[in-house]
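Students often ask why we bother encoding 3D structure as a string. The short answer is that it lets us treat folding as translation between two languages. Here is a chain of 597 residues written in the first language.
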Amino acid sequence: MTTNPQHLAALRAELKNRDLAGFIVPLTDEHMSEYVGNYAQRLAWVSGFTGSAGNGVVLAEKAAVFIDGRYTIQVAAEVDTAHMEHHHFEQYPLLSWVKDNSKAGDRIGYDPELATVAWEEDARAALDGTGVELVAVDTNPIDSVWEDQPDPSLELVYGHDTEYTGKTASEKRVDVAAELAKKGTDAAVITMLDSVAWAFNIRSKDVLNTPVPHAFAIMEKNELATLFVDERKVDSNLKQFLGNNVRIEPRTAFYGELEKLGSEGKTVLVDRASNNAKVFSTLKASGAKLVEGQDPCILPKAVKNATEAQGSRDAHIRDGAAIAEFLCWLEGEAPKGTVDELSAVDKLWEFRQRRDMLKDSSFDTISGAGPNGALCHYRVSEETNRKLEMNSIYLVDSGGQYLDGTTDITRTVIVGTPTDEMKDRFTRVLKGHIGLTLTRFPEGTAGMMLDSIARRPLWEAGLDYDHGTGHGVGSFLAVHEGPQRIAKFGSPVPLQAGMILSNEPGYYKEGEYGIRIENLVLVKEMDLGGDPQRRMFGFENLTWAPIERRLVDANLLDDIELNWLNAYHADVWEKLNSLVDAETRVWLEKACAPIER
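And here it is in the second language, the structure alphabet:
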């Protein structure tokens, strides 16, 4: 996809009809989602940019797209500068650009369903004193001119059994009701798609790779709840599954029900981070009393119960068998010069499909050969597809959605012979990965306090990477889940037993190669024999697949690190050898053999 000037012209004509001088186009939906359905890909329609994060703005004479450092190459390939500028959002923020390119009296539109209250406040502050007016539109002008805009998904919504969730939806409503009572509120508005899916134990296929339905919800302190979903997606099985204490209403009735809460004088819990601005304005205008706080589903969703934790363990072992078969195949085929990034993706999916309970990928596989691997969020296409060449590095980041768990794993392999530099960089990444895995920390520790542990071996050589070290992961839900995170400027939320995170340090040499080693880990309480009054936590490894031994410089590993690596590979062999085919079993034994200096 590239910038279509006819799309820009159609939008500009619509803006003129609405007396708007411009319009802001975020890449999100009314649920503030990271991954959105095809109907909500408005930024791609306007600009041609198909990355997973960005914003745009269209004025009468100028337009621009704003992205982060992950997408500088992609935006240059997809967005025609003859029609739209592109800028790094930190170096030239969108609101600064709007301020610089607008004049007093201009009315700049935005869709309040695609913005948070915090963004509204920031935007009004940025434009204060300029004479530029920020205007909340009733309907999105892009939807008025997007002639072939896809319809929202009509995939059926279905119940996710307690054998996987470990807790019934009614039990979750009891917990949420108790939280509402504690905060002195009558109801909470739940708009994040994975929160709705978690709260009601429901799933669907409305978003690519993320098994959630497009739905809103209101949960009440009396343990009743209302689910707002397109009635065409509801069947008798779902009604029976949800039970009598869940009222099902059309998705289009959601804002009307918010007005009703206000007219009844209800006190409502709202979340600035996840509820869109229209939710706030609708409640306020109708007379509701708002209490701001976190979505009451977010933290309990992040803290997996025993059933969910065991499901993740089981899913990762099956997934590891698929990865092992793929790596075995790759080692045999890549040196022949016939494997490219796309064929590798297809082959990996073929191996995953042989596993029980697989429903989907958990995200689009990142398959990066040579220099493409240096793009940490690279997405292979027919235009960018490269063959895996001899003496080059190949990075593959992928995951599966299984009924009992969500996986996310990155492995970096060498085709042919690595350079000393490649081995040095890989081993430093591995040292950081092991260091984080072995870290023990006291209760109250946030992920941002652990991030430097994974970076230290790279920092010691004057190196670093420009992404977070770890993100939360759901249970047959979103592969990116909050509130937990391990990053330089990550979430201040303390890590708790039951949270699942990724451990994925990396190194990227622009134009040459990328390295990343990613396992998922489960936070667990540990008895370290210290102060009995101080709870301590650590990580249980969930991901099992060989780490590329040909890229390891054993002389850079200390005894603890080398022992960890050998013990990890012994566990990989024990867990996977009976689950893979005969050819892979032979390969796996060699791949998991102890490494000596």
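Translate back mentally: The chain has a mean pLDDT of 96. Keep this in mind for the problem set.
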